[in-house]
Amino acid sequence: MLRFGIFLLLLALASPAAAQTPNPESNPAEAVTPPPIPDAKTLAANYELASAIGDRKCPVTLDVKPAGPGFTLVYDRTVCLPLFAFLSETVAWAPGIAGSIRFVNAAKRTVSEFTEGIGGRYEALRENDGVYFLSNLQFVDPGDMPQFADLLGDWNLLRPGGPPICGITLTDQAAGDDTFVMSLKTGCDQSVTRFGPVSWALDRGDIILISAKGDRLRFGRQQEGGWAKVPDTPRPLLLARP
User: Fold this and answer.
1) CA–CA distance, 20 with 18 (Å, rounded to integer)
2) Which of 38, 88, 152, 167 could form a disulfide with 185 if both were Cys (CB 3.0 to 4.6 A apart)?
3) Is the peptide bond before 231 cis (omega within 30 degrees of 0)?
4) Degrees (nearest 5) of the Cα angle 6, 7, 12?
5) DSSP reduced 3-state for 100
6) pLDDT tens track for 131-174
């Protein structure tokens, strides 16, 4: 009888431990699959880098040519660096998790990461800086882009809040590769005549005024419909219809 009681006690102590033994078949461990990183060739294209309100923008190209910690990022440094200070830290780009686009420094650390949105548009939030957009020009709605024919004719150059300082005319007469003849009207301010624009071009939605020496003034379309020089330093300049 004593032996039977001891057997029951041992059985009672063993039962909870047996109940706690995991059953690998009933609770299989789920394998954690990291989000995919796309091939660089799927992201390589011409893009437009822009600030949140569109007052600063410049064209960039994501190339698949290796460049240090990533791939080659092509852009006009004289145009883009004054507009986007973080580009001075950026030496390359690289594909990121879930299809993002990373701008990286020499140590391969992320300077800015653009996550994919809709319609070929990517968005980056830089802490203590702001929001930036990177738009694949293959997917930009053509209806949103200014049309060449709509830009022909008379325009005024003016300072913000001031009267016109020069009248110009944009024509469709060819002046060279993708550039066209423009002319100044009489009475233009010396700041304009010193620059001496003689031709113009439509470059990825921006109006470019080109001097005889090849110097350029770039005007980007604003959200309210006007046009402003980019960058706006050292002095802002606007382009508007008379």
Assistant:
1) 5
2) 167
3) yes
4) 95
5) coil
6) 999 988 777 665 667 889 999 999 999 999 999 999 999 999 99
Single-letter residue type at 58: C
* CA nearest neighbour of 113 among 100, 97, 131: 100
- Angle in degrees, CA 166, 227, 157, rounded to 5: 5
Residue pair 23/85 in contact by the 8 Å Cβ criterion:
no
Whether pLDDT at 18 is above 70: no
- How far apart are the two ends of the chain, measured CA to CA in Å? 113
Contact between 47 and 59 under an 8 Å Cβ cutoff? The reply is yes
Q: What number of CA atoms fall less than 13 Å from residue 173's CA on the CB side?
A: 9
What domains are there in the chain, each with its CATH number? 40-140 (2.40.128.10), 143-240 (2.40.128.10)
Q: Which long-range contacts (CB under 8 A, 24 or more apart) does 163-170 make?
A: 164/242, 165/189, 165/191, 165/192, 166/192, 166/193, 167/242, 168/197, 168/209, 170/200, 170/207
How much is the pTM? 0.51
pLDDT of residue 19: 46
Token readout for 99 is 């299809």
200: left (phi over 0), alpha (psi -120 to 50) or beta: beta
CA dist., res. 179 & res. 172, Å (int):
9
Q: Is the peptide bond before 236 cis (omega within 30 degrees of 0)?
A: no
